[in-house]
Amino acid sequence: MPSLIDLLLSRLATLLPSELKSTEFMKLVIPHRHSMLMSQRRATLIVNRVRLFAFLFAVLTPMWGIIDLMVFTYPLWLGLATFRLLACAAFACLLLFYRPSGNLFDAYRAVALLFAIPTVFYIASHTLLGGYQLTQASAMVATGYAFLPFVLMAGLAIFPLTLLENLVMASILLLAHALAGYLSWTTLNWPSYAGGFWLLILIAGVTSLASLSQLAFMIALVRQAIRDPLTGVFSRGSGQEILRLQWDTARRHDTGLAVAFIDLDHFKQINDNYGHEAGDLVLRECTQQMLASLRSTDTLLRWGGEEFVVIMPDTDREQARLALSRMIRSSLGRRPDGSPLTASIGLAERCVDFVESAEELLDLADKRMYLAKTSGRNRLCFEAAGETPSETPLSAA
After folding, report:
1. What total number of domains does the chain contain?
2. Residue limits of the GGDEF domain (predicted)?
3. For residue 18, is it within any domain?
């Protein structure tokens, strides 16, 4: 039985986009597995595509009113025109007043508003048309309104959504279609309605595959853009973005935020004496050791060369000091000659140091790292405003 399950899983893995690792499968299913940067960039992309969609609907929705004027009688045409103008105004407001914030829940709200507007228009127009006796020409035009759910369902394909998000959005559109059928129960053409409902489900499946494909490419591209290729931790550019996000969160909730600047001691000697391949091996081992000692909420990034930065949200200075001391005691790894690898560390914390920006916090940690280096290396340097410089010698196993 286990071998059969393993075979099934391996077969399913071959269906994944080649850009993804097998361990990233769940990122296509639920959004909670995404990193902070991935969520932010996906939220921004979703809102921008919502605004593009809103622009198209704002332009095209009133244009169909010309056809309504040509085929429908005065009371019916006026009612449909009113609905169209209201929908057009709603699309225009969504386009003009909704801006990307990088927040995923804001992106969900934008998508919900985008699809709520035409859905309400579809139900209202469907109900209105059901109350009139239509001629052959007007009945043919009226069937065009029945295609709106299919357009909306197909429109989901332009968004990089997870499987769960696709299921939620598709279910809402299917429920709206079912509601429209319920409101016109007495005049409903059941064979046509059932065929349309089945086609809507089929389109939902196709658009889900398109959305997942977009998401897979996005995950792969973001991974390549934000990760250091040697160590696999966050790169300098993405780290600056993470620090700004954590700074905004800390200020909004008035919580601690600690930043540690780490410089490996005498690392140049490793490259000079043993070669860059040995240096790369030491860096990778050191990175794994640090990751194993840090909390899941902490972020480790490679700043450049042998320099690293640790971002510790919701952490005061004393907690950060203890965590860093514990990380050093657990060992940063070994040099090629077998001696322990040591580091000079500078620590800064938002509340204690009274800094005014994320850049100032990082700069302060950098200065204290240099102070630790000039004071003899293998030590942690921290100090608060008005205090004498504080240094804690470190030891490595």
Report:
1. 2
2. 255-385
3. no
**Token pair recorded at residue 359:** 């850049």
pTM of the model: 0.75
- For the chain, first and last CA: distance in Å? 45
Number of Cβ within a 10 Å radius of residue 179: 14
Residue 390's beta-bridge partner residues?
382
Q: Are residues 60 and 85 in the same domain?
A: yes
Q: Is the pLDDT of residue 334 over 80?
A: yes
**Domain for residue 16, yes or no?**
no
Q: Compute the average pLDDT of residues 145-165.
A: 88
58 and 115 within one domain: yes
Among candidate residues 226, 244, 272, the one where a domain is terminated? 226
* Distance in angstroms (rounded) separating the CA atoms of residues 341 and 284: 12
3-state secondary structure of 254: coil
Instruction: Name the E strands within the chain.
Output: 257-264, 299-304, 307-313, 343-349, 379-382, 390-393
Whole-number Å distance between alpha carbons of 71 and 41: 46
**Residue 9 included in any domain:** no
220 lies in the same domain as 242: no
Beta bridge partners of residue 234, listed in sequence order: 227, 301
Whether residue 340 is predicted with pLDDT greater than 70 in this model: the reply is: yes
385 confidence band (pLDDT: 50, 70, 90): very low
For residues 257 and 376, membership in a common domain is answered with yes
Q: How does DSSP classify residue 190?
A: H
pLDDT at 50 over 90: yes
Between CA 226 and CA 282 the distance in angstroms is 22
